[in-house]
Design brief:
The complex is a heterotrimer of chains A (309), B (304) and C (341). Chain B is mainly alpha-helical and 304 residues long. Chain B has eleven helices and no strands. In chain C, helix 3 packs parallel to helix 6, helix 4 packs across helix 6 and helix 6 packs parallel to helix 7. Classes of the chains: A mainly alpha (309), B mainly alpha (304), C alpha/beta (341).
Chain lengths: 309, 304, 341
């Protein structure tokens, strides 16, 4: 088990290092120095940056200075919002993004699993088709389309919910729904498949032969075994939710990190793009790592393999 | 029936029973195609995809306008006899632009999937076929790359190399091949150990022949299924990138940029978002239905 | 002796895309308390379906018990509600399956899998169930049961898992144990141990056993009576002694000659039965074995043979028993068959 975690942590660090190096190289591949292009940077900031990153020094030295800054958690200055560091912006914006992301994830997991289980238990009957219809539509429509249409219909036309902002529970409903829908669909599909597979397993027959009722079989034997493989795709799903916040925050004008990120892309605010990219990358890699570790705790079979290794 | 001594005369099996009817033997692909044809959802998906592709070819020529013709006298028109799907804020014909967008979006999807396939299958094939140390090192690299958040990297690359059709395809294939490599390697490892490959080896077939005749045909199924998922994913990614401002360059249109334009004009002209959104949705739906059907059809375990 | 189970004219069909599969076509047999019966036949002959029908475990859809009756301990099983059936399963009938590797829930400890039924059927507290589970595991011959019971199935070998399955099936001391090919997936050496365990527990707990198998070697060790099935029908049945000593049906001969024996000349060829069982979508009108039978007559292809009783519970369905049939000698023991008189 410890060995497994250490091994995975090793990969995590290697991946992060690749991303940081890639970011560094790409940043320096830009014509001129990153603080000249394409917008005029106020001279004091430029001086500040040049000194900080030692841009007059040879490239390899710059690389180590960059790593050193990173290791202290310093991600640089924004070009657009002068006087603010990327760290400030992450500190301000990320709580909103995290709030939105967690809401969407909770909505997606509960709804997705429920839909999948209902579909599997009513295999080839009305509920199954309904759930799968929802699932197929969910993966077929981009989340920005869902967000925009919902905003237009429910908030602008029907005036049922606030159009934009993030000031209370009512404000969270549409963004969380739009952000989570794709994940709901994916979860439901996967849960249905694994649930159907599990229901055909011999140990379900054993449970039946013990005289358990269908409800006991489903709750005690089927769901737990069916959820296990679904947990493995949770990592990529979290990634999807996090990248989805970029779009959803923009549509609903939520002052989160995703919105800053999209703005920084449109403003070609390179240091902000780089800093945020590294932050997102670290976050995503950590999320996948945590999901994998959690999985090894849930599945008793993996625990043994890890222990023997 | 009255029992007579005559009835108790010996009669062997062959005389008594008509010869059993044998099912005509089908090759793997014939059998898969037969089952795919039976799957109504998959066939509906295939028909929709065919129509979409045809319209991508002829659609832009069905109107007198070019996708970039501006008519500042009639901007943001609702659908009419003159402009079937209306016009955008620069007075460009939406019908023409939607099908032009179809060309671009489908092209991006197809190219991304194809590049994934070429790079991924080569890498995975070599790794899986050679095995041992080489495989070990190649897979360590893949594992590190696999954990890189794909979308973040694409965004980063797009920011650096700039928007545009080819940067999108490039950025997506630089990051996308890793999944394919893992898939092909897994298949290779599995197949390599199977009896028919061992048999071919024992019979003295050379490695090139083994790869060509035995390994590739047997990995084609999962690869094809994976491609029916890669293409829509690429179209989706393109739409996402366009939405955050990293799409193809004006005046070229893709479904993603059209949807983005529609989003900006949402309150003024809701239909501007509706049509590209429908185009994306229907295509995704068709790919999903077709892909699911194909997976079922190619799964040897489901052969009846 | 008192009858525990009586199956009469049982018919089970599966409705699939290709049409109706007549899996069981008029099977009758019965079982006394404390007795063991073996149902023998090739795969696909309907023996497992018969067993599942008794437990009412036939997957439905597509499976349906079309007609016939199953009387278990005075109750008509086919007429019970699902709720009533749940009370019988596990409590009065237990079942073990062919593949111990897949029959146990991989994410539940062995203890919970055993005690589950006890808590449900006998209303035991968790503590009582635990001590009973411990008792069952040691009865099933699992060493260090205290330690083993908190483990998961993947920590057990195949033979040990089958012992766990037996412990689960017998936890509530059921009157009937159905063992569906319990040794097929196991090593030969382990097979004998499992059969011995079942025999041992049968005498300790006074359980009746239905043993489903294609292996006559397994039958000889355990069963008092044998039912030979072919293509969904019973072709011959009787006490194990009589059936082995004086088999009457050509299919039984084929089965017996397919078993390797130590007391035979090794140069003698081991027999196989040519051909495959008939298509159960459209079963032949006559004797289902006729197309593969070396003794087939015209009548065999046209009419289903009647059941002939040979006394002492020995029954056979074969036209060779008819007075008009030519005299035939059994290839197994050289004895004359009733026909031709």
């Amino acid at each position: 088990m410890t060995r497994y975690i250490v091994k995975r942590a090793g990969y995590m660090i290697a991946t992060l290092w690749v991303i940081i190096t890639l970011t560094f190289v790409l940043m320096h591949a830009l014509p001129g120095d990153p603080f000249l292009n394409p917008k005029k940077v106020p001279e004091p900031i430029r001086q500040n940056m040049l000194a900080k990153y030692g841009l007059d020094k040879p490239l390899y030295q710059q690389y180590f200075i960059y790593l050193e800054n990173l290791s202290r958690g310093e991600l640089g200055y924004s070009l657009r919002y002068t006087q603010r560091t990327v760290n400030d912006m992450i500190r301000d914006g990320f709580p909103y993004s995290a709030d939105l992301g967690v809401r969407a994830l909770i909505f997606a997991i509960t709804t997705g699993l429920t839909l999948g289980i209902i579909a599997a238990l009513n295999h080839n009957r009305g509920w199954d088709y309904t759930a799968m219809l929802v699932a197929v539509f969910g993966v077929s429509v981009p989340n920005f389309v869902v967000g925009t249409l919902l905003q237009y219909l429910i908030s602008v036309k029907l005036r049922l919910l606030p159009v934009t902002g993030w000031e209370g529970f009512k404000y969270t409903l549409l963004p969380s729904f739009a952000l989570g829908l794709w994940t709901v669909a994916l979860m439901a599909r996967m849960m249905r498949t694994t649930m159907l597979e599990v229901l055909n397993q011999d140990y379900i027959k054993t449970a039946k032969a013990k005289g358990l009722s269908s409800r006991e079989i489903v709750w005690r034997h089927a769901i737990r075994n069916a959820i296990l493989p679904v947990v493995t795709i949770l990592g990529p799903l979290v990634v999807n939710i996090i990248t989805g916040t970029l779009v959803i925050e923009t549509i609903f004008a939520i002052p989160g990190l995703g919105r800053y990120y999209v703005q920084s892309i449109n403003n070609l605010d390179y240091p902000l793009i780089m800093g945020t990219t590294i932050f997102y990358a670290a976050l995503l890699i950590l999320a996948i790592f945590l999901v994998d570790i959690a999985y090894s705790f849930i599945d008793p079979r993996i625990r043994l393999v890890g222990g023997k290794e | 029936m009255e029992l007579t001594r005559e009835l108790f005369a010996p009669q062997s099996a062959a005389e008594g029973q008509a010869e059993a009817i044998h099912r005509p033997s089908l090759t793997y692909w014939q059998d898969a195609w037969r089952r795919l044809k039976k799957n109504k959802m998959a066939m509906a998906g295939l028909v929709v995809l065919t129509i979409m592709s045809l319209m991508a070819i002829i659609g832009p020529h069905m109107t007198p306008y070019s996708y970039s013709d501006q008519d500042l006298q009639s901007t943001v028109q609702p659908p009419s006899a003159k402009h079937w799907l209306g016009t955008d804020d620069l007075g460009r014909d939406q019908f023409t632009r939607i099908w032009m967008g179809a060309r671009v979006s489908l092209f991006i999807g197809l190219m991304a999937a194809l590049l994934d396939l070429i790079i991924g299958a080569t890498y995975g094939g070599i790794s899986g076929y050679l095995g041992g140390r080489v495989d070990d090192i190649m897979m360590r690299i893949v594992e590190v790359l696999y954990a890189i958040p794909f979308m973040i990297l694409v965004i980063l690359l797009m920011v650096i190399i700039g928007g545009g059709l080819f940067s999108i395809i490039l950025a997506m294939s630089i990051t996308g091949w890793v999944g394919m490599a893992r898939l092909v390697r897994g298949q290779m490892l599995q197949l390599k150990e199977q009896e028919f490959v061992l048999a071919a080896k024992t019979l003295g077939a050379d490695p090139g022949r083994i790869i060509l005749r035995h390994l590739i045909p047997n990995t084609m199924g999962p690869i094809l299924v994976s491609m029916t998922m890669t293409i829509p994913a690429a179209i989706f990614t393109e739409a996402f990138l366009s939405f955050i401002g990293l799409g193809v360059r004006m005046p070229l249109a893709s479904w993603g940029t059209l949807a983005n334009d529609g989003y900006n004009l949402m309150r003024l002209a809701p239909w501007m978002l509706l049509y590209p959104a429908l185009a994306i949705g229907i295509t995704m739906l068709a790919f999903n239905m077709f892909g699911d059907g194909l997976r079922d059809a190619l799964d040897p375990r489901l052969r009846k | 002796m008192e009858k525990l189970l009586e199956v009469k004219n049982l018919e089970v069909s599966f409705f699939t895309y290709g049409g109706e599969v007549h899996a069981v076509r008029g099977v009758s047999f019965d079982l006394n308390r404390g007795e063991s019966v073996a149902i023998v036949g090739e795969s696909g002959c309907g023996k497992s379906v018969t067993a599942q029908a008794i437990m009412r475990l036939i997957p439905s859809p597509p499976g349906v018990i079309k007609s016939g009756s199953i009387v278990f301990d005075g109750r008509e099983i086919t007429a019970l509600t699902d709720r009533q059936m749940e009370k019988i399963r596990g409590a009065e009938m237990g079942m073990i399956f062919q593949d111990p590797m897949t029959s146990l829930n991989p994410t539940m400890t062995v203890e919970r899998q055993i005690s589950e039924g006890l808590i449900k059927h006998q209303g035991l507290s968790a503590r009582e169930a635990r001590s009973r589970a411990l008792e069952m595991l040691s009865l099933a011959g699992i060493p260090r049961p205290e330690e083993r019971m908190s483990q998961f199935p993947h920590q057990f070998s195949g033979g040990m898992r089958q012992r766990v399955m037996i412990a689960i099936a017998l936890a509530c001391s059921p009157k009937l144990l159905i063992a569906d090919e319990p040794t097929t997936a196991l090593d030969v050496t382990i097979q004998a141990q499992i059969i011995d365990l079942m025999k041992d527990l049968q005498s300790k707990l006074n359980t009746s056993i239905i043993l489903i198998t294609h292996d006559l070697g397994v039958v000889a060790g355990l069963a008092n009576r044998v039912v030979v099935m072919y293509a969904g029908q019973v072709v011959e049945s009787g006490s194990a002694e009589r059936l082995f000593a004086n088999p009457q049906h050509p299919y039984t001969w084929g089965l017996l000659r397919a078993v390797p024996r130590m007391d035979r000349d090794i140069r003698e060829e081991l027999h196989n039965i040519p051909g495959t069982p008939p298509d159960l979508f459209a079963p032949p009108p006559g004797c289902p074995f006729a197309p593969r039978c070396g003794y087939a007559m015209k009548i065999c292809h046209r009419e289903r043979p009647e059941v002939t009783s040979l006394g002492d519970g020995h029954q056979v369905s074969c036209w060779l028993q008819h007075p008009l049939a030519p005299a035939t000698l059994s290839p197994v023991n050289g004895g004359a068959i009733n026909g031709g008189k």
